[in-house]
């Protein structure tokens, strides 16, 4: 595998010359980085910040690169309609130049991703994603950018967990993250790169390890965990911007070539900032485009279908760690629609990251914003043993906020997160009766989880009573559930208990 990767990365290295000021020593490089930006609302503010930062940097004679760390085309309400095309347009308008693939780039299938990549004026790069053993169509390998005598290497990496976090086709492969970085960084170094940057969609644990374990990597601009973070301790040098354009991660590298013992060596120093966008005046042209998209959505989906008598919690931290009112709503709606004994809804399928106060008027747009993936509900026959395995898996990534966390209906469970993974579930009741490992139950879940998505492999091969073609859209089932009741008041009633 290692030798294959090395050949692969050599074959894909591209060299570009970046226009800029006249040659000067030392070189100042300003990197403006975004990641996990799939909702359009902040685009005007993002565009305004990037334009101002570029203007200031170029006035000082600095070079500027605008980069992206993955998760652009999905999930969002608008992406469910145009398959992410609007985010490609907005990314171009705000000035992104280089991007790596995130796991959500694969939510809508390989053909959609191929189309979005082909539409992009900016460059997508990857050193560990292939399709049928070849580079993913339209995605380039490592880049070398020549900046007035300095060569900057750029590498793209995507978490191998994408295999079960999204919906890549059977021919898509994600090579080992660290091995791919080692190979690609070595390739650009051999071609003369002075400074090597990784655009990563791997999360903090993978990314912080790169600058320690891969000697040729100097800086990692990351994504995937939605954290706004800057780390620099003399060895680790990583930065990411949170999510949804709330910050721009700004990294400034000042580098110079000095002679030491008759040989030229590179010396450099970094500085960092997280530039907030919240109070920025939006760039008018980009904001006008966002307003146009929003108005179209409101016309189509703004009808009120009911109201909530309680707070509805879809905040990311809550939906991936504890019982919530909205999680109960989704699980109840899918169980009622299918007549199943029990239901499991993965927290990562709920995307609004919002706390709606009691009295909120519920619209179709709100439901589709929360459930943007277009999943259908399937009904399976499963054993109690499979259910127990599913719950163990569901709570196994709670420390990292993994989207596999199970919201449930028709059953209750308790767990102790201080125990080892695989030994955390303490008690499971189905309709107030202890779960029987040998008994067969009917389960409602979305088609993604039902076919092994989010790591729920224990459901693969189960007898299918209602398949994804026959099952209704999960969002439609929730909409129907609200319409039938007019006012909903789901409560947190002890379905999930954490005892540690």
* Overall pLDDT score: 92
Q: What is the CA-CA span between the terminal residues? A: 42 Å
List how many beta strands DSSP finds. 30
CATH superfamily of the largest domain: Metallo-dependent phosphatases
User: What is the spatial order of strands in the main beta sheet?
Assistant: 1-8-9-11-12-14-13
Based on secondary structure, the structural category is: alpha/beta
> What's the helical proportion of residues?
25-40%
The number of helical segments is 15
The percent range for strand residues is 25-35%
Specify the CATH architecture of the largest domain.
Answer: 4-Layer Sandwich
Quaternary state of the chains: single chain
Domain Calcineurin-like phosphoesterase: 32-226
Protein name: 5'-nucleotidase
Keywords: Hydrolase, Nucleotide-binding, Signal
Signal peptide: 1-24
Secondary structure elements and pairings:
Elements lengths: L1 H11 L1 E4 L9 E8 L8 H17 L3 E6 L10 H4 L2 H10 L3 E3 L9 H10 L3 E3 L3 E3 L2 E2 L7 E5 L2 E9 L3 H4 L6 E3 L2 H14 L4 E7 L2 H10 L5 E3 L6 E5 L4 E5 L5 E14 L2 E14 L7 H18 L2 E5 L3 E2 L2 H4 L5 H14 L3 E5 L8 E2 L4 E3 H7 L6 E7 H11 L11 E4 L1 E5 L9 E6 L2 E2 L5 E7 H4 L12 E4 L7 H12 L1 E2 L7 E3 L2
Parallel strand pairs: 1-8, 2-3, 3-4, 4-5, 9-11, 11-12, 12-14, 17-29, 19-27, 24-30
Antiparallel strand pairs: 2-15, 6-7, 6-10, 8-9, 13-14, 15-16, 17-21, 18-20, 19-23, 22-27, 22-28, 24-25, 25-26
Helix pairs in contact: 1-7, 2-4, 2-9, 4-9, 11-15
In short:
The protein is α/β, with parallel strands linked by helices. 30% of the residues lie in helices and 30% in strands. GO terms for molecular function: hydrolase activity; nucleotide binding.
């Amino acid at each position: 595998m290692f030798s294959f990767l090395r050949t692969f990365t050599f074959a894909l290295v591209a060299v570009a010359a970046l226009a800029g000021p006249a040659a000067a020593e030392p070189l100042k490089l300003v990197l403006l980085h975004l990641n996990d930006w799939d909702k359009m609302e902040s685009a005007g503010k993002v565009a305004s910040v990037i334009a101002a930062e570029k203007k200031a940097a170029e006035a000082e004679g600095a070079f500027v690169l605008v980069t992206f760390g993955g998760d652009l085309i999905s999930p969002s309400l608008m992406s469910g309609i145009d398959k992410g095309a609007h985010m490609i347009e907005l990314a171009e308008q705000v000035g992104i130049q280089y991007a790596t693939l995130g796991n959500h780039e694969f939510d809508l299938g390989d053909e959609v991703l191929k189309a979005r990549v082909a539409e992009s004026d900016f460059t997508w790069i990857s050193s560990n994603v292939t399709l049928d053993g070849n580079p993913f169509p339209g995605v380039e390998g490592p880049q070398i950018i020549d900046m007035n005598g300095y060569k900057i290497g750029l590498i793209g990496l995507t978490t191998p967990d994408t295999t079960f976090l999204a919906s890549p086709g059977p021919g898509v492969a994600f090579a080992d993250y660290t091995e791919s970085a080692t190979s690609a960084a070595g390739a650009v170094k051999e071609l003369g790169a002075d400074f090597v940057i990784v655009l990563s969609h791997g999360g903090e644990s993978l990314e912080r390890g790169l600058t320690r374990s891969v000697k040729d990597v100097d800086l990692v601009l990351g994504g995937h965990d939605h954290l706004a973070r800057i780390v620099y301790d003399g060895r680790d040098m990583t930065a990411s911007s949170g999510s949804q354009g709330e910050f721009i991660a700004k990294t400034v590298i000042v580098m110079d070539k000095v002679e030491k013992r008759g040989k030229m060596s590179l010396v450099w120093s970094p500085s960092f900032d997280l530039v907030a966008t919240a109070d920025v005046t939006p760039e008018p042209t980009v904001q006008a485009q966002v307003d146009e998209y929003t108005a179209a959505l409101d016309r189509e989906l703004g009808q009120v279908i009911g109201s909530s008598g309680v707070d509805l919690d879809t905040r990311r931290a809550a939906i991936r760690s504890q019982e919530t009112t909205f999680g109960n709503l989704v699980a109840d709606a899918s169980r009622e629609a299918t007549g199943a004994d029990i239901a499991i809804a993965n927290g990562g399928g709920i995307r609004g990251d919002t706390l709606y106060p009691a009295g909120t008027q519920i619209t179709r747009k709100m439901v589709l914003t929360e459930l943007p993936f277009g999943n259908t509900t399937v009904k399976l026959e499963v054993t109690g043993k499979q259910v127990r395995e599913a719950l163990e898996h569901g709570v196994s990534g709670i420390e990292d906020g993994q989207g596999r966390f199970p919201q449930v209906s028709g059953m209750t469970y308790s767990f102790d997160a201080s125990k080892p993974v695989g030994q955390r579930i303490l008690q499971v009741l189905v309709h107030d009766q202890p779960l029987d490992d040998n008994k067969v139950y009917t389960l409602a879940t979305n088609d993604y989880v039902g076919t092994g998505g989010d790591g729920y492999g224990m459901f693969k091969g189960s007898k299918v009573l209602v398949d994804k073609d026959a099952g209704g859209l999960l969002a439609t089932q929730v909409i129907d559930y609200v319409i039938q009741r007019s006012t909903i008041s789901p409560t947190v009633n002890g379905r999930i208990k954490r005892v540690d």
